[in-house]
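User: Can you recover a sequence for this backbone? Please restate the input before giving your answer.

Assistant: Of course. Working from this structure:
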């Protein structure tokens, strides 16, 4: 996700010299330098020096070990810290950062890697309008930005858009599988399913989010689409999807509690 953000920021007009990257692994550090021509160092303290915004893009289990040694440096300059480490609560981040460091959280998803992401964002009330606007400008490099009013709603964002690509991929996979069982060549069925997924996403984006209207426009009375949708409704697809998102939300909360306990 860090690489996705660097690439997105550079595409949006930020200059390489405006970015500094802390990366502990030598191979990854050299790749960042070569691919993006930005400054990359193994010294995280040097990476955050004089920064107005610091993005914490590490695995959740590594977050404490990365942030704690930076506490005095962060407390001295008080940059805005944006964490994209899944499940790490703001209270824990604030405790690791030191006094007075403004902290907020963002939850992007995998399509952010191609600039087509959906990022849920939460900031405590202490984060002012200017810092919120600055954070939004940074995160828009990954795609669309959606603000939530309570931190616990990021668990729902994770269940919906964070994990969501896997749900769509699974459905497309099952469609391709069924198409092959009905006689299509397997590779063609997979390409048809992928192209349908891609085109439907573009239509959904252009349709201003009115998904029910888009569905109705494809569904002719008495036609093939209606027959398929009736079968899905008879199988109680709505309840299955609701149960799946509830399970993902609950699991996110369990993982967050384990990571910050």
């Amino acid at each position: 996700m860090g690489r996705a953000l660097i690439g997105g920021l550079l595409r949006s007009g930020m200059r390489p010299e405006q970015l500094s990257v802390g990366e502990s692994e030598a191979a990854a550090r050299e790749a960042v330098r070569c691919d993006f021509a930005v400054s990359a160092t193994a010294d995280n303290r040097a990476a955050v020096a004089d920064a107005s915004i610091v993005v914490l893009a590490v695995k959740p289990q590594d977050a404490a070990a990365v942030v704690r040694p930076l506490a005095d440096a962060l407390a001295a300059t008080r940059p805005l810290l944006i964490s994209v480490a899944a499940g790490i609560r703001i209270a824990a981040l604030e405790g690791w950062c030191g006094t007075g460091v403004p902290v907020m959280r963002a939850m992007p998803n995998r399509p952010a890697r191609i600039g087509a992401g959906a990022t849920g964002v939460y900031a405590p009330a202490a984060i002012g309008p200017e810092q919120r606007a600055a954070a939004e400008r940074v995160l828009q490099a990954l795609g669309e930005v959606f603000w939530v009013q309570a931190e616990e709603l990021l668990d729902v964002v994770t269940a919906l858009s964070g994990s969501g690509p896997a749900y769509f991929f699974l459905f497309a996979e099952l469609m391709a599988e069924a198409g092959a069982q009905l006689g299509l060549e397997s590779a063609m069925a997979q390409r048809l399913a992928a192209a349908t997924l891609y085109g439907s996403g573009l239509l959904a984006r252009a349709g201003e989010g009115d998904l029910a209207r888009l569905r109705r426009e494809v569904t002719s009375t008495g036609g093939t689409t209606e027959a398929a949708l009736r079968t899905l409704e008879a199988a109680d697809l709505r309840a299955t999807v609701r149960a799946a998102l509830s399970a993902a939300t609950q699991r996110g909360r369990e993982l967050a509690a384990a990571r910050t306990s």
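That completes the design. The radius of gyration is 21 Å.
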